[in-house]
Amino acid sequence: MTDDSPTAAPPSSPPSRLRAVLPDLAPWRASADFRKLWLAGLISSFGSFLTFVALPVQIKELTGSAAAVGAIGAVQLVPLVVFGLYGGALADALDKRKLIVWTEAGQAVLSAALLVNAALPSPAVWPLYVVAALSSALVSVQRPALDSLWPRIVAHEHLPAAGSLNALRWQVGGVAGPALAGAVVAYAGAGWAYGADLLTFVASVFLTLGIAPSPASHAAAKPSLKAIAEGARYAWSRKELLGTYVIDIAAMLFAMPLAVLPFLADELNAPWSLGLMYAAVPAGAMLVSLTSGWTSRIHRHGRAVVVSAALWGVAIAAAGVSRNVWLVLLFLTVGGAADMVSGIFRGVMWNQTIPDELRGRLAGIELLSYSVGPQLGQTYVGGVAAWQGVRTSVWSGGLLCVGAVGLLALCLPKLMTYDARTNEHAVRLREQRAAAPSAAPAQARAEQT
């Protein structure tokens, strides 16, 4: 992952070395729409992570079953697949901003439903699964629109930096949200977490309304099964892209232990650590984002994806065999850092090589690659925990992840040889963006108003 070192240069001064490590703020400075959308995402992700912790904890309290907690992933899977693919077609055919606003408003309604259920004298279990499924559908429609909007409001050369900043936004919410949720749920109840989530969605809607419209490309196909199939054929023809999808699915399928963390905290006699466990993975990811300046100097993105996915599996396996809660937290943090490196370079490969008219549909496939794995993983780890125990479900999943990633890397040589400087798709898109000075039309319109 360090084979792309620059040619020899005079020694850098301490300030320049520091700038080379710190996040690149160029997208933030250059694009007003990027700033608004970034802030909206930060606010809503904070609330979403509150619910992310509160929902499984509430199901655990109501049922006492690891399998019941793991079933959250199962009920989210079908809407994720169906609406993810169709959401990608919608993102190509409709105004992306409108899709983001309406789905964000729908999430606010679902948070209100969770709040009402939690306020009942005897909260029911079934509404928790219904809301989880509906929320998965809304996320599946929104994410392709959101992911395909970034290249329109950010210059091509700023896309790696934008990916790191977007990850940092998610991680701030991912660290603060779970850490706070653990205390809120324990001492005040899940209803307070759901109420806070509702407020964050409302704030996010108002911020998103302030960005410029982002209508469909003139070459975009209307949403249909034919259009979805066209996107799938393109993805299949790009074996390096296919590699990023299957590597991430394998890593998350076998080594995503989040569903059993409430039980792992109990086994370690440290229920106080649950919020910290949920926060550890995004904390590790945030450490990478805060020192992500080096990512712009890496060009062999496929190798970086493979190595970091394997490191994620090693870290999760180590967390599973550790009997000290602080070691568990350390290994979860290391795993989060490795997963972040993988995520950064997957996103750069996607954003720098996929044509605009296909970006929404490919974003729908991307959504499946980084969402189906965790959803299936929750069901897998919950089932193995009920069968063989919590610890076994964690360490065995980590080892299976390492094996699967290694096998896939051998089967997908184009992923391992991918180089952003020479890949034909990356070169073509870079030349197209260079030939069109207004590479971010939505931002151009925003600056003129």
TrEMBL record:
One of its GO terms (molecular function) is transmembrane transporter activity. It comes from Streptomyces viridochromogenes Tue57. It is found in: Cell inner membrane. The keyword Transport applies. Residues 236-449 form the Major facilitator superfamily (MFS) profile domain. The lineage of its organism: Bacteria, Bacillati, Actinomycetota, Actinomycetes, Kitasatosporales. InterPro entries: MFS_dom, MFS_trans_sf, TM_effector. The chain crosses the membrane at residues 37-59, 65-87, 167-192, 198-221, 242-264, 270-290, 302-319, 325-346, 367-387, 393-412. The keyword Endoplasmic reticulum does not apply. It is a multi-pass membrane protein. This is Putative Integral membrane protein. Keywords: Cell membrane, Membrane, Transmembrane, Transmembrane helix, Transport. Its main location: membrane. GO terms for cellular component: plasma membrane. CDD domains: MFS_MefA_like.
